[in-house]
Design goal:
Two copies of one chain form a homodimer. By secondary structure, chain A is α+β, with helices and mostly antiparallel strands. Helix content of chain A is 31%, strand content 34%. In chain A, strands 2-3-1-4 form a four-stranded antiparallel sheet. In chain A, β2 and β3 form a beta hairpin. The longest helix of chain A has 15 residues. Chains A and B meet through β1, α1, β2, β3 and β4 of A and β1, α1, β2, β3 and β4 of B.
């Protein structure tokens, strides 16, 4: 199980638009067979910062996700909303065991 | 739903010991009524770095967690394993909706 944290810094005027576009993407992403979770959270002490937590079940799942219409729509919709380029960090799942995600 | 990311930098000689102690803590933590998830992941490009993703259902749940025996045991067990003080960031859940965690 690959867990990807995507850190996003959003321009203040786009907070609601970013949330809406990202939740729309997340709702479709969790239907993908290779995706176990696709969470969005907003930082409490700086609401312009968000983290996406994406849990992929297979090595092929991230590339499959990036080929979906909902991902491409999200990518293009939010491009101008970013205060800086987003950053992602890849993690290997340790707990719970993969079958329990 | 409060989501807390705890970033931990572990001394290289304690990687396995840290994992074992943290998984033992996580197994007990997810039994707490106020905790929805308690995930551990290890950074792929730097295995000395871990993230705990803790999802709390109520405002009281973090304090309740810090009063449990398993938390106190973990805290004391891993104290000397840290390469630097751990850092936590608090997030407000945006997706999925709280009931779906």
């Amino acid at each position: 199980m690959l867990v990807v944290h995507v850190q996003v810094h959003v321009k203040p005027e786009y907070l609601e638009a970013f949330k809406q576009a990202t939740i729309a993407n997340a709702r479709e992403s969790i239907k993908e067979p290779g995706i176990a979770r696709f969470d969005l959270a907003q930082q409490q002490d700086d609401p312009t910062r968000f983290v996406l937590v994406e849990a992929y079940c297979t090595a092929e799942a991230p590339a499959a996700h990036k080929g979906t219409r909902h991902y491409l729509t999200w990518r293009d919709t939010v491009a101008h909303m970013m205060a800086e380029p987003r950053a992602s960090v890849k993690f290997s799942n340790q707990f719970p065991q993969d079958a329990d995600w």
